[in-house]
């Protein structure tokens, strides 16, 4: 959980991201909110993003209430791309177990494209973290400033086993390129010295 100062830092970093420069400021704020409160949102186990945003917690958290108000009032005026982005967040944050895999497929493919694009864009930074796996790298302080880092982590945690063969290969390649391979603990330890009398 970020708290208000973490939320502000997260929003500030993403606000200036050139990739999303054309997106409305309020959509960026909503996405930054979704990333900052993702753990809590997932635990609510709701079936839609609207239900998540309208939960009782919105009365207690200012950013939550702001995201709810904006979503409810402005959803019809969102661009197609903004709606798709929020639908993709909905796949990650909501309980979609009742949907058939055929219904999930377009969203999963779109989400994977977002994940792949994020990993390409931040490959050098992720590599410098020298983490053992992508999950650890994506949770690093540096990467948490990007909402798409949280998006990527959530996607891989929830849907990695449902990826197509080509997507599995691509993900394996990213793991090899970005993560540090370390010897198992028993191999990494120095040999024991023999006691001499």
Structure description:
By secondary structure, this protein is mainly α. The chain has two domains: 1-98, no CATH class; 99-178, no CATH class. Helix content is 64%, strand content 0%. Helix 1 packs across helix 2 and helix 2 (25-36) packs across helix 10 (147-159). The protein is globular and about 45 Å long. Mean pLDDT is 81; it is low at 1-22 and 183-189.
List key phrases describing it.
197 residues; mainly alpha; 0% strand; globular; disordered N terminus
- Rg on CA atoms, Å: 20 Å
Q: How far apart are the termini?
A: 56 Å
Number of domains: 2
**Helix run count:** 12
What percent of residues are in strands? Answer: under 5%
Total beta strands: 0
**SSE class:** mainly alpha
Mean pLDDT: 81
| Unreliable stretches | 1-22, 183-189
| Helix content percent band | 55-70%
Based on CA inertia axes, which overall geometry fits?
globular
Strand and helix order: HHHHHHHHHHHH
The description of the largest β-sheet is: none
Which helices and strands occur, and which strands form pairs?
Elements: H1 3-15, H2 25-36, H3 38-43, H4 49-53, H5 62-74, H6 80-93, H7 101-121, H8 123-129, H9 134-138, H10 147-159, H11 165-178, H12 185-188
Helix pairs in contact: 1-2, 2-5, 2-10, 6-7, 7-10
């Amino acid at each position: 959980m970020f708290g208000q100062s973490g939320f502000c830092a997260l929003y500030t970093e993403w606000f200036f991201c050139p990739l999303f420069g054309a997106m409305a400021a309020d959509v960026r704020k909503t996405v930054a909110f979704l990333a900052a409160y993702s753990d809590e949102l997932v635990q609510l186990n709701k079936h839609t993003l609207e239900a998540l945003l309208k939960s009782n917690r919105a009365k207690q958290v200012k950013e939550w209430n702001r995201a709810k108000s904006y979503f409810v009032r402005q959803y019809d005026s969102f661009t197609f791309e903004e709606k798709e982005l929020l639908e993709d967040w909905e796949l990650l944050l909501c309980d979609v177990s009742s949907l058939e895999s055929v219904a999930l497929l377009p969203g999963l493919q779109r989400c994977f494209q977002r994940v792949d694009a994020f990993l390409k864009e931040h490959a050098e930074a992720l590599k410098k973290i020298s983490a053992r796996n992508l999950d650890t790298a994506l949770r690093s302080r540096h990467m948490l400033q990007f909402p798409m880092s949280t998006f990527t982590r959530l996607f891989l945690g929830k849907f990695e086993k449902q990826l197509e063969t080509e997507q599995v290969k691509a993900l394996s390649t990213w793991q090899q390129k970005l993560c540090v391979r370390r010897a198992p603990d028993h191999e990494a330890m120095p040999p024991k010295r023999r006691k001499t009398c």
